[in-house]
């Protein structure tokens, strides 16, 4: 099989270029040319017909391209400034092959030097007889397709072939030796071992130490047979050599080349400045000088055999994946630009009078299937399209390797800029094109299995939502995305969600373009995002978790993470070390009464004095600090209830960290029902904040209710984040980060209120205590009335004076109110209620329902309760028959009606009056009758 790359040219361009090339066959002629040439990869079958190369072949060629480019360290401007407007003039009589092309200056120089400098003349060779209608075939630009047969100018007339040292040196040190420039026929039988080795080196690109002539000849012939395209030459391989063929054969072979299948891909060819065609440079027919190289037939030698042969073979037999086939087929049906190239190729081949067709390809696609490279040369870029097939087998190593890298930084920068443009050119005009591969930041190809959305698609989606409404994805898909078979309604839904995120996360101060996702192919313009936002707001689609624009930044996330970290570490700090017996000596006293109240405050604020005043229990009070060093309990008799009041040592700043036994003090206060924070009215206002902070540091939450956040850990299923209302402090990402900090990866979170990050952390920690706190400002006798008035108006505050016994009753009332004790009086059946000894319930101590009331009396009472009769504020009428779930209120009177024992046997007419066993077998057998 021979694989060739055929050139499709533009006839008009050809004429112009040929004229230009003749008049000014230099670089300037090239610069005037803007139209690119489409190269298509074809294959010559056994009948000599050119058939389109298969995908595997294209893939293999691309591999070779890549490999060669990566192997070849040679970098030259001329490599990338490919001249594709080559004008060929083939004389039927032959004998003349004119190649005029606007090669770069380097090429001109090298090509001009080559005939003179080349010491490799071999043998006389007939001038090539080529049909003018033919499409000149080029071999694929790989290292295997190198070599040229020269006809004349050889100072060394022999049958061997010699490497063109000048040319080799001209192109620099190559990693692979190039195939020698041959002249005339080659008869391997006549070559010496050394010459055979040279030939082998030229053919395969590597040296060999084998001296076996037969082996060398066989390998060389095999290499030539497999790799060289002799169809465009007058050479054939015959009898251990490359020999001339008849004119008829040449004519036939050329005729075969004209028959082309239009369905071929395009391929870029890099023309090298060197006359020795090296690796991926195999252009043999271009000459910038426009001079005639008479008798120089272009035989692109396929000096094959490289180390990748086996790999390529493996690739060819590998079955393409289903996805690859699907995408390729979709792409082929969709790619209008690809069709353009194909059709151009078809036209070019079908035009009888042209041999080169320069195709003005203007569209640029990045779908991985075709790509037009625009290399900058001077002011006018030359566009070189080539096939860039999607290869699902492995990602293309480097996008840039397909584009020859110039040594000039400027050109390199330009190319990068162009690449960026290409990336961003996913525009309206290319709406049907989708990127499958994208160049990543490190220059390697990053493959995306999904098709990135184009701007036109996004606009269509937004229009569809505006027209049909969000949620009607199937309808939008059917009506607006009918031609986009690869877009499902789920895709539309997902994209709309991402657009919503992007639009609500976008800060107004940000620059106009913002991506909804990090790796999206196109940035969404600000107007579209604004439109999305408008639509979402109109259709009440504001996602709760994205309604806060403040989350566009990372500061909140970072702060949230830090808060979670601090809370976690603080919890670890407060936990007693494992293995220890726990805390040391504490202040804990036995619980007594119906409620417990702790006195917390700085030293010498009057706590002990207050205890003495309220309870009658003496507690040492003095004018120096830390008079009290332990917990002193007292009992307050109030409203037929007993309330335990605890006098505690004074705490100072840093108590939560253990200063002044502050931790034990706070631990006792944690066990109480409410906290009385005693403050000195004559002291700084900051004391209140300090104490609040200290208590909160150990998990006490004063005058707060638990956050309305439902949180439940799960074993599997990930994190489900939901909210019943728009959130302004927490979003999904922040919630995930905080949970991640606690190493929670499976949980259910439901926000029922606009909670803060601290609330979420409290819920996750789960050990917070929410308590009522009354701020008691003592010693108001020493401050002005204005200050007293101001303090008294603060929430949860009360002003007192222990010395003057001012406002103590209000303090007790407030305390009672905050404690929420519920007194229930019992009423025996047929008797008066007992108002002397109530049953005291509270929400903090087991609840206030009838069942709690029964349990408070005795645990076994609940199952005997038939119903209860309730008098009081909780009853709608007196008495009300209530069940166990009825909620009781303060000073209710309850009468319990128990079930009767005889009712156990049934009710009404179903009642069982007999005590006989239910089953006959259980009955006692009567004694048999005596006869
Ligand atoms: N002017 C005035 N002084 C008071 C009042 N209540 C208490 N004091 C004085 O404040 C000083 C401290 O009183 P204590 O009851 O020992 O204060 P404490 O908070 O128990 O102090 P520690 O036990 O050290 O924490 C005493 O000298 C009291 O006489 C008040 O209402 N007015
Ligand atoms: Mg005291």
Automatic annotation (TrEMBL):
GO MF term set: GTP binding; GTPase activity
PANTHER family per the UniProt record, alphabetical: DEVELOPMENTALLY-REGULATED GTP-BINDING PROTEIN 2
PROSITE patterns named among the record's database cross-references: G_OBG, GTP1_OBG, HTH_MYB, MYB_LIKE, TGS
UniProt-listed Gene3D superfamilies: 1.10.246.220, 3.10.20.30, 6.10.140.1070, P-loop containing nucleotide triphosphate hydrolases
Domain OBG-type G, residue spans: 595-820
Identification of the protein by name: Uncharacterized protein
Domain Myb-like: start-end pairs: 452-500
Entry-linked Pfam families: MMR_HSR1, MMR_HSR1_Xtn, Myb_DNA-binding, TGS
Subcellular locations according to the entry: Nucleus
Occurrences of domain HTH myb-type (ranges): 445-504
Chief place where the protein resides: nucleus
Classification via CDD domains: DRG (cd01896), SANT_TRF (cd11660), TGS_DRG1 (cd17230)
The UniProt record lists the keyword DNA-binding: no
Segments for region (Disordered): 295-317, 900-931
Basic and acidic residues: bias regions: 920-931
Keywords in alphabetical order: GTP-binding, Nucleotide-binding, Nucleus
Phylogenetic placement of the source organism: Eukaryota, Viridiplantae, Streptophyta, Embryophyta, Tracheophyta
TGS domain segment(s): 820-898
């Amino acid at each position: 099989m021979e694989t060739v790359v055929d050139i499709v040219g533009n006839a008009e361009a050809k004429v112009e270029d040929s004229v230009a090339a003749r008049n000014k066959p230099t670089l300037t002629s090239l610069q005037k040319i803007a139209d690119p040439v489409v190269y298509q990869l074809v294959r010559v079958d056994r009948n000599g017909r050119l058939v389109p190369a298969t995908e595997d072949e294209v893939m293999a060629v691309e591999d070779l391209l890549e490999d060669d480019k990566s192997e070849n360290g040679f970098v030259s401007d001329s490599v990338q400034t490919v001249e594709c407007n080559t004008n060929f003039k083939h004389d039927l009589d032959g004998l003349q092959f004119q190649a005029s092309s606007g090669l770069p200056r380097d090429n001109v120089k090298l090509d001009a030097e080559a005939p003179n400098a080349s010491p490799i003349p071999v043998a006389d060779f007939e001038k090539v007889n080529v049909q003018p209608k033919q499409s000149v075939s080029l071999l694929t630009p790989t290292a295997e397709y190198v070599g040229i047969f020269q006809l004349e100018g050889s100072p060394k007339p022999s049958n061997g072939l010699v490497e063109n040292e000048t040319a080799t040196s001209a192109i620099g040190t190559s990693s692979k030796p190039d195939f020698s420039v041959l002249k005339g026929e080659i008869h391997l039988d006549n070559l010496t071992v050394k010459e055979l080795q040279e030939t082998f080196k030229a053919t395969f690109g590597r040296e060999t130490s084998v001296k076996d002539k037969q082996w060398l000849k066989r390998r060389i012939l095999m290499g030539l047979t497999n790799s060289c395209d002799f169809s465009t030459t007058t050479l054939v391989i015959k009898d251990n050599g490359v020999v001339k063929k008849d004119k008829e054969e040449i004519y036939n072979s050329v005729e075969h080349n004209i028959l082309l299948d239009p369905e071929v891909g395009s391929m870029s060819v890099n023309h090298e400045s060197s006359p020795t065609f090296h690796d991926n440079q195999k252009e043999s027919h271009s000459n910038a000088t426009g001079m005639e190289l008479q008798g120089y037939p272009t035989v692109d030698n396929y000096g094959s055999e490289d180390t990748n042969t086996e790999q390529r073979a493996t690739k060819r037999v590998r079955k393409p994946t289903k996805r690859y086939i699907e995408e390729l087929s979709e792409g082929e049906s969709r790619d209008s630009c690809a069709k353009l190239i194909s059709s151009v190729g078809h036209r070019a081949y079908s035009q009888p009078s042209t041999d080169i067709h320069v195709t003005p390809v203007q569209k640029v696609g990045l779908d991985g299937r075709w790509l037009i490279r625009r290399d900058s040369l001077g002011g006018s870029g030359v566009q070189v399209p080539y096939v860039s097939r999607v290869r699902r087998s492995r990602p293309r190593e480097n996008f840039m390797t397909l584009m020859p890298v110039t040594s000039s930084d400027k050109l390199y920068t330009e190319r990068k800029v162009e690449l960026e443009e290409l990336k961003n050119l996913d525009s309206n005009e290319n709406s049907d094109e989708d990127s499958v591969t994208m160049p990543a930041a490190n220059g390697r190809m990053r493959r995306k299995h999904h098709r990135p959305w184009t701007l036109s698609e996004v606009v269509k989606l937004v229009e569809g939502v505006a027209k049909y409404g969000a949620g009607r994805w199937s309808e939008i898909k059917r009506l607006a995305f009918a031609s986009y078979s690869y877009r499902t309604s789920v895709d539309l839904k997902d994209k709309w969600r991402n657009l919503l995120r992007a639009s609500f996360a976008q800060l107004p101060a940000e620059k106009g373009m913002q991506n909804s996702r990090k790796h999206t192919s196109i940035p969404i313009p600000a107007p579209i995002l604004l439109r999305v936002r408008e639509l979402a707001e109109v259709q009440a689609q504001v996602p709760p978790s994205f309604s806060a624009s403040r989350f566009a930044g990372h500061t909140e996330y970072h702060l949230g993470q830090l808060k979670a970290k601090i809370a976690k570490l603080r919890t670890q700090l407060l936990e007693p070390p494992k293995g220890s017996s726990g805390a040391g000596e504490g202040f804990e006293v036995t619980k007594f009464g119906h409620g417990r109240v702790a006195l917390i405050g700085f030293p010498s604020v009057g706590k002990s004095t207050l205890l003495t005043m309220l309870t009658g229990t003496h507690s040492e009070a003095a004018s120096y600090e830390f008079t009290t060093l332990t917990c002193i309990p007292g009992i307050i008799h109030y409203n037929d209830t007993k309330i335990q009041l605890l006098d505690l040592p004074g705490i100072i700043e840093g108590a939560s960290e253990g200063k002044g036994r502050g931790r034990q003090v706070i631990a006792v206060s944690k066990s109480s029902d409410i906290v009385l924070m005693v403050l000195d009215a004559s002291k700084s206002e900051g004391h209140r904040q300090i104490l609040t902070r200290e208590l909160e540091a150990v998990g006490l939450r004063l005058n707060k209710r638990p956050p309305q956040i439902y949180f439940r850990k799960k074993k599997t299923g990930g994190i489900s984040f939901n909210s019943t209302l728009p959130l302004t402090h927490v979003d999904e990402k922040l919630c995930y980060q905080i949970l991640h900090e606690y190493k929670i990866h499976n949980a259910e979170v439901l926000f029922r209120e606009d909670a803060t990050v601290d609330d979420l952390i409290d819920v996750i920690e789960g050990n917070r205590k929410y308590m009522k706190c009354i701020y008691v400002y003592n010693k108001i006798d020493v401050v002005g009335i204005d200050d007293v008035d101001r303090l008294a108006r603060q929430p949860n505050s009360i002003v007192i004076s222990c010395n003057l016994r001012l406002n103590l009753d209000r303090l007790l009332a407030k305390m009672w109110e905050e404690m929420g004790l519920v007194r229930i009086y019992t009423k025996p059946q047929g008797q008066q209620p007992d108002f002397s000894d109530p049953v005291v319930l509270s929400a903090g101590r087991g609840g206030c329902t009838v069942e709690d009331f029964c349990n408070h009396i005795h645990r076994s009472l609940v199952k005997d309760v038939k119903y209860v009769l309730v008098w009081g504020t909780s009853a709608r009428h007196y008495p009300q028959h209530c069940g166990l779930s009825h909620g009781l209120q303060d000073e209710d009177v309850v009468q319990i009606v128990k079930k009767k024992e005889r009712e156990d046997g049934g009710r009404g007419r179903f009642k069982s009056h007999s005590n006989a066993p239910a089953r006959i077998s259980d009955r006692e057998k009567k004694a048999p009758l005596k006869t």
